[in-house]
TrEMBL record, chain A:
It comes from Paracoccus tibetensis. GO terms for biological process: phosphate ion transport. This is Phosphate transport system permease protein. Belongs to the binding-protein-dependent transport system permease family. CysTW subfamily. It is found in: Cell inner membrane; Cell membrane. It is a multi-pass membrane protein. The keyword Mitochondrion does not apply. Its main location: membrane. InterPro entries: MetI-like, MetI-like_sf, Phosphate_PstC, PstC_N. The keyword Thylakoid does not apply. Keywords: Cell inner membrane, Cell membrane, Membrane, Phosphate transport, Transmembrane, Transmembrane helix, Transport. Residues 172-389 form the ABC transmembrane type-1 domain. SUPFAM superfamilies: MetI-like (SSF161098).
UniProtKB/TrEMBL annotation, chain B:
It comes from Paracoccus tibetensis. Residues 18-260 form the ABC transporter domain. InterPro entries: AAA+_ATPase (IPR003593), ABC_transporter-like_ATP-bd (IPR003439), ABC_transporter-like_CS (IPR017871), P-loop_NTPase (IPR027417), PstB-like (IPR005670). It comes from the Bacteria. One of its GO terms (biological process) is phosphate ion transmembrane transport. GO terms for cellular component: membrane. One of its GO terms (molecular function) is ATP hydrolysis activity. Keywords: ATP-binding, Nucleotide-binding, Phosphate transport, Transport. This is Phosphate ABC transporter ATP-binding protein, PhoT family (TC 3.A.1.7.1).
Length: 401, 265
């Protein structure tokens, strides 16, 4: 019997078990259903879960065993039958357990709690798995390449014939420079937009403008990248870079930074808007009641109260900017340069990770493995930013609850 | 500012500070306040009593135009402060609120230090020329609010860290520091325990020497204790207004009598 059929059959058994369990509970209660310890639906649920869970466990184990080759494909039918048998036995045990005193609610709630814990563990376990795989490959990389040359090298020139220089500094510099310009664009515009929307705009403007701004957040970053490539890049080059003699490349830090900033505006503005709205109205009333103007109220009371949250929003935006790839590839190019000129092409860690891993290279050369070291570096940077952001946001929450 | 109000008090003890004529308030389609006429005296505590939703807080918020901040509220009629129509187009609500301070139901200290909370009003209105003067105003206001002794050693700590009663007295000190001519209090003791309530009530009695106080309260005992004049509101109407003793001992209107004896509300 194929597993899919076994699954369907166990589901049907569980559904039947629910109905049977419920009616048995009603029957065992007699005339007064209040003598039951748990409500009949809980009895039904406990029977259904007892039928379903052992069957599911057997099926998952069987599938895993087949994937790892411990079982042949033909053994699938046996596993299906086993699962079905377990479901039937579970159903029988479940139904026989039902009487007025059986604590079905406690049993069901324990299972549900276990399920919730299982789900949250998956999130944490996958994060750990990702870190471990990065750490493992990074270890490989550092066994082949000197860590001092990686962290303090000022050139990133991979050569597949060997003898490459793989310094992280130009990439780190490009990442931070582009993110800095992006935040310089996104934070003031997003924040002032949020202040207008939450403090000055009437309900009609607000209901119109907020979705329009949030549409920006739905645009895929590759589209922003195209915008950078065909519009912003050439425009900046023709209008500023060439007349001032700063460079002749359409790909530049400025292009990528500006477009990335535009991408981050809705992110900053909608987060800040929520945070500003969360400042209690009583504080605004208090300030207005003392005779402050709306602008004094915002500057001296609302913004200071919202500041920790806004800082958190900015840091979240920063970690998005640091992780952004597509806009950089199309806007800033792929040349690893260490320069102050914002109209020069530069590149970031993420772009280099992609370029080192694409193409057919073997996974043992330092030129490929450097991608994992770069990834881990990036992960540590964004992790630190997120932790700082979380701490600040939590501090803000404590103040008003 | 304190000096000028004090000289006035000698001359005109029973002057009319605020006079309201035919005041109507609408929240959207709802007629929340109907035809209110009232004269509020200077250097007097006036209590507004009445069941919930009767319009007493609404009327209080008309006096310093706090209803302007609610989009759907509209106010008709005439309210004069010292003879000047406060709903006149030339009157800036910001300047009006500097003269008519307000203390709210829930203590709402700003997320600043205790000192900065009290110094907020004097700073924005430029009431002090230097740090020494500002220090003096802060101390005087905190003493006035019976809070000085409790906080004098921790003026730099956040105002939000105080207890509920202390926070409310801080808010009163903050309002007093702007040297208002009228102080509006919207159920200032509803979040406080009896001891803190007693302190605030004592404070209200002292504040009467400097300016006129209008207090909205749900507690009839409180109205009887602190006020000289009482206005009873019911379903958006001002039913009866007079000396507090008269309202509580010989009410003219049957609705007032029903309310103070606990039969409605």
């Amino acid at each position: 019997m194929p597993l899919s059929w076994a699954l369907l059959a166990s589901l049907a058994l569980a559904a039947a078990g629910y109905m049977v369990g419920r009616s048995r509970a009603f029957a065992s209660a007699g005339a007064d259903s209040r003598t039951l310890h748990s409500r009949p639906t809980y009895h039904g649920m406990s029977v259904a879960l007892l039928a379903l869970i052992p069957a599911l466990v057997i099926m998952v184990l069987g599938a895993l065993a087949r994937m790892t080759g411990l079982l042949s494909a033909e053994a699938g039918g046996v596993v299906g039958l086993l699962a079905l048998g377990a479901a039937v036995i579970g159903l029988g045990i479940g139904v026989s357990r039902i009487n007025a005193g059986f604590m079905a609610r406690n049993a069901v709630e324990k299972i549900v709690l276990g399920f919730l814990i299982f789900c949250s563990t998956i999130a944490i376990a996958t994060t750990l798995g990702i870190i471990l795989s990065l750490v493992f490959e990074t270890g490989n990389f550092f066994s082949q390449y000197d860590w001092r040359a990686f962290f303090f090298g000022t050139e990133f020139v991979p050569r597949f014939e060997g003898n490459s220089r793989l310094g992280v500094l130009p990439l780190l510099w490009g990442t931070l420079y582009i993110s800095f310009i992006a935040l310089l664009v996104a934070v003031p515009i997003g924040l002032f937009g949020a202040i207008y929307l939450s403090e000055y705009a009437g309900p009609r403007t607000r209901s119109l403008a907020k979705p329009v701004i949030e549409v920006l957040a739905g645009i895929p970053t590759i589209v922003y990248g195209l915008f950078a490539l065909v519009t912003v890049g050439p425009m900046l080059r023709d209008a500023i870079a060439q007349p001032l003699g700063l460079g002749s490349s359409a790909s530049s830090v400025m292009t990528a930074g500006l477009v990335m900033g535009i991408m981050l505006i809705p992110f900053v503005s909608s987060l800040s808007d929520d945070i500003i709205n969360a400042v209690p109205q009583s504080l605004r009333d208090g300030a207005l009641g003392l005779g402050s103007t709306p602008s004094e109220t915002i500057k001296q009371v609302v913004l200071p109260a919202a500041l920790p949250g806004i800082v958190g929003a900015v840091l979240l935006a920063a970690s998005r900017a640091i992780g952004e790839t597509m806009i950089v590839v199309l806007g800033a190019g792929a040349a690893a340069t260490l320069s102050l000129n914002p109209f020069e092409a530069m590149t970031t860690i993420t772009v280099k990770i992609v370029s080192q891993l694409t193409g057919d290279n073997d996974f043992s050369s330092p030129e490929t493995l450097v991608a994992f070291a770069l990834g881990l570096t990036l992960f540590v940077i964004t992790l630190c930013l997120n932790i700082v952001a979380l701490i600040i946001v939590r501090k803000y929450r404590e103040q008003y609850e | 500012m304190y000096d000028t109000t004090r000289t006035e008090s000698a001359v005109s003890q029973q002057d009319i500070k605020i006079s309201a004529r035919n005041v109507q308030v609408y929240y959207g389609d709802k007629h929340a306040l109907k035809d209110v006429n009232v004269d509020i005296q200077d250097k007097t505590v006036t209590a507004f009593i009445g069941p919930s939703g009767c319009g007493k807080s609404t009327f209080l918020r008309c006096i310093n135009r706090m209803n302007d901040t609610i989009d759907i509220a509209s106010v008709k009629g005439e309210i004069r402060l010292d003879g000047e129509d406060i709903y006149d187009r030339r009157v800036d609500p910001v300047q009006l609120r500097a003269k008519v301070g307000m203390v709210f139901q829930k203590p709402n200290p700003f997320p600043k230090s205790i000192y900065d909370n009290v110094a907020y009003g004097p700073r924005i209105h430029g009431l002090s020329r230097n740090k020494a003067e500002l220090d003096e105003i802060v101390e005087k206001s905190l003493r006035g609010a019976a809070l000085w002794n409790e906080v004098k050693d921790r003026l730099a700590e956040p105002g939000t860290g105080l207890s509920g009663g202390q926070q409310q007295r801080l808010c009163i000190a903050r309002a007093v520091a702007t040297a208002p001519e009228v102080l509006l209090m919207d159920e200032p003791c509803s979040a406080l325990d009896p001891i803190a309530t007693g302190q605030v009530e004592e404070l209200i009695d002292q504040l009467r020497e400097q300016f006129s106080v209008v207090i909205v309260t749900h507690s009839m005992q409180q109205a009887a204790r602190v006020s000289q004049k009482t206005a009873f509101f019911h379903l958006g109407n001002l039913v009866e207004y007079g000396a507090t003793d008269d309202i509580f001992t010989k009410p003219q209107d049957s609705r007032t009598e029903a309310y103070i004896s606990g039969r409605i509300g």
